[in-house]
Amino acid sequence: MSRASTRFDTKKVNSELVTLTYGALVAQMIKDLDNTEDVSKQLERLGYNMGIRLIEDFLAKTGTGRCLDLKDTADKIQSAFRMYLGVQPNVANWSAAGDEFSFILDSNPLTDLVELPDELKNLKYCNIICGVIRGALEMVQLDVQSWIVQDQLKGDQNTEVRVKFIRRLEDAMPAGED
Amino acid sequence: MSDDAVFEFLHSELINYIISQNEGKSKEGKDEDLSNIEYIGFSTGYRIIERLTKEMPRFKDELDTMKFICTDFWSALYKKQIDNLRTNHQGVYVLQDNSFRFLTKLSSGKQYLEVAPRFVAFTCGIIRGSLANLGIGCLVTAEVQNMPSCKFHIQVQRT
């Protein structure tokens, strides 16, 4: 498809559009729900819903096959970050058992134009990312937990997203079928 | 690589969220309340236009502004230009997009025609917000007759 001509850098506009829309949405949620805890939860759910669709887009565009182990999975998610968020995080802080790891983001486009007021310091603004990871992995039979460890919005050096592997999901056959 | 999909999914989740918030509140037979979706669009449009036009010279007049919205602005956001712009030169503008980005993913039959307003409310807000920031106060409504084409009516408010 030929791109319509525009004097703007479409990629940059698109990423700002996502950032601004997300910001406006979060602001609306804060208005709707009075508990920041609920807002964080809602954001995670929203991310989950996006994740279960994004994985399909990811698989279609990259044509990747099965992952052999969690390290493999981490690499794939890393490239998904680059595809969808435009930044490449580092994979680090593996736990001794090899079932937990972190993505370290030097910069986070999602929070580029964002400032959190003091009374919202416990809002997990980037929870959508955790939701996306959980949703996407659930669609490839991996049950994981994900949460934010460090957040640049709150004055930390980097943004760190932790992922913990829980178990492999088995395909449940519909009743009455072999 | 593109992150177009992210915006599209975010847009549909946003609608999903607002609609689920509305549930229980709405009264039978009344039109759905899409004002919150429109307002999110408004805030987004108000901010994005400022970032896009900060290096640009001032627009000549209202029509010039509208042309900018139809071409550069629309291509940046919706990957194509507006197909048709009409005006009565008295403050009414009609922008027609024959293949509107958020409607192309829906069936083009009649099946989802009644939920189509959900998918254009955000954009009405975007238009209203960006024009507001450029100093033009207006009302924006949308009309979907045949998917995936959509008409945006802009009524400039003169005081």
Automatic annotation (TrEMBL), chain A:
UniProtKB keywords: Endoplasmic reticulum, ER-Golgi transport, Golgi apparatus, Transport
Subcellular location: Endoplasmic reticulum; Golgi apparatus, cis-Golgi network
One protein family per Pfam: TRAPP
Keyword Transport: yes
GO cellular component entries: endoplasmic reticulum; Golgi apparatus; TRAPP complex
Gene Ontology terms: biological process: Golgi vesicle transport
Main location: endoplasmic reticulum
CDD domains in the record: TRAPPC3_bet3
InterPro entries: Bet3, NO_sig/Golgi_transp_ligand-bd, TRAPP_component
Subunit structure: Homodimer.
Function field: May play a role in vesicular transport from endoplasmic reticulum to Golgi.
Family per similarity comment: Belongs to the TRAPP small subunits family. BET3 subfamily.
PANTHER family in the cross-refs: TRAFFICKING PROTEIN PARTICLE COMPLEX SUBUNIT 3
This protein's name: Trafficking protein particle complex subunit
Organism: Zophobas morio
Automatic annotation (TrEMBL), chain B:
Cross-referenced Gene3D superfamilies: Trafficking protein particle complex subunit 3 (3.30.1380.20)
Family (UniProt): Belongs to the TRAPP small subunits family. BET3 subfamily.
Location (main, coarse): endoplasmic reticulum
Coiled-coil regions, chain positions: none
Biological role: Component of a transport protein particle (TRAPP) complex that may function in specific stages of inter-organelle traffic. Specifically involved in the early development of neural circuitry, likely by controlling the frequency and amplitude of intracellular calcium transients implicated in the regulation of neuron differentiation and survival.
Keyword Cell cycle belongs to the record: no
One Pfam assignment: TRAPP
Subcellular location(s) of the protein: Endoplasmic reticulum; Golgi apparatus, cis-Golgi network
Name of this protein: Trafficking protein particle complex subunit 6B
Keywords recorded for this protein, A-Z: Endoplasmic reticulum, Golgi apparatus, Neurogenesis
